[in-house]
Amino acid sequence: MATAAVIPPAADPATGPARSARDLVPADLWNKQVGLLMRDYPYDSIMATRVLGQGYAYLITAMTHRGEALGLAPSKLVDIGVHTIILDTVAYAELCDRYNAGQFLHHVPLVEMKNDGSVMKTAQIIARDGWEVDLPLWQDAADCGPCHPGNDSH
Fold first, then answer.
1. pLDDT band at residue 147, thresholds of 50, 70 and 90?
2. CB 123 within 8 A of CB 7
3. pLDDT tens digits along 110-126
4. Counting Cβ atoms within 10 Å, is residue 85 exposed (0-12), middle (13-18) or buried (19+)?
5. Chain centroid to CA 110: how far?
6. Does residue 119 contact residue 73 with C-beta atoms inside 8 Å?
7. Which of 63, 76, 72 is CA-nearest to residue 118?
């Protein structure tokens, strides 16, 4: 019997509400990327916004923990948001400049899928860093996207 993952609160009443990626991304870029998700996937604007927000939370968390070899991994749904972000290379380079000390966070996928709990661990780290976690988008984690473990890449 599977147990539900416990995600710690993203913020306590003393520090305020959880951070939202929507607050960090310029409106024109956000709207463009939501539009790209709606064009490429069967998403309405609500689902596209959710997926994109979690993609940003994941990437900024990965950048924040650069060099810690935490084995972060997005779920399949969150990875769709991540790909939308990184494929807009000019905006992605600017994101890396801002949140990763100018270091490009590379995308290094592997062929084999993995099922090691790293996706839910990642969601917990994102929550501990103060981000909103849209838990239903992380629960497709039985087999997560294969990313190169132990290095500073997605």
1. low
2. yes
3. 777 777 888 999 999 99
4. buried
5. 18
6. yes
7. 72
